Amino acid sequence: MTETLLDQAWAESEAAPEDGALRLRYYARLIEAEMVLLLEHEATGDTITPKVFDLEDGPLVLAFDLESRLTEFTGLPAPYAAMPGRALIDMLAGKSLGLGLNLGVAPSSRLLPPEIVDWLAQMIAERPEELSTRILALHAPKGLPEALLLALDQRLARMEGLARMAYLAGVEYESGAGGHMLAFVDAAPDSEAALARAVQSALSFSGVEAGMLDVTFLAVEEPRAAEFARVGLRFDLPQPAPQTDNPPVAPGTDPKRPPRLR
User: Fold this and answer.
1) How far apart are CA 50 and CA 260, in angstroms?
2) Residues 160, 152, 112, 42, Cα dihedral to 10°
3) C-alpha Rg value of the chain to the nearest Å
4) Could you give the CA distance from residue 6 to residue 259 in angstroms, rounded to a whole number?
5) Is residue 61 part of a domain?
6) Domains in the chain: how many in total?
7) Using one digit for the tens of pLDDT, what is the confidence trace for 184-230?
8) What is the distance, to the nearest Å, from the Cα of residue 233 to the centroid of all Cα atoms in its chain?
9) How confident is the model over 14-45, as pLDDT tens digits?
10) Residue 192's domain spans which residues?
11) N or C: which end of the chain has fewer CB within 10 A?
12) Within 13 A of 60's CA, how many CA atoms are on the CB side?
């Protein structure tokens, strides 16, 4: 049986049920995983109809982190929509629907009630506050928890094409305060909000205080970008492969066109 990252995170959290950081890491894996949602029938354009199961504790939909697991559950090929866990949670938030994950086909089998779905949606929707103070100096990052660095690496690895790279550096402000800042270089048009939310999500699910990390956006030719490059810890964001044609886009895969529930 294939063990996925979600399985591993679930096993770690089960082995230490009192460890809140491990529980957050499990939810972070869910948010970042590529999920397949079981549908009632094939998608129509951008509109999908999840298959809803009416149980005694309330209605729920089913999602799996591998297509083979969905097929194992259904026993035969079935319609589905593939999407990041983040998009799935956003889509279900406020709908009073529970979420069944890998039910009966994996160690990470679990039921999330609607209140957990809504809590997750709130966690990933938060954004850092904008800064109004000037930077005096930058230096190499130090003293940051390993959990935060790992969470950042995992989040940014899924932000394909939204920026060229990012640098994490220590910062001293004109106000006398200090901290750390993540500078995105050459962010794609209209991507700032998504990138800021990704950073906030990394903070939230790593259990780190939200005030520990600020965000800025720079063009590669700006002098400040060179300063970050000299002292900062670099994260390379994946870049999309060149496209020679325009293949159809499956529902849920385009963050600018989330699937609509019917």
Assistant:
1) 10
2) 0
3) 20
4) 23
5) yes
6) 2
7) 999 999 898 888 888 887 887 776 654 568 889 999 999 999 999 99
8) 21
9) 999 888 888 888 998 898 889 999 999 988 88
10) 135-236
11) N
12) 20
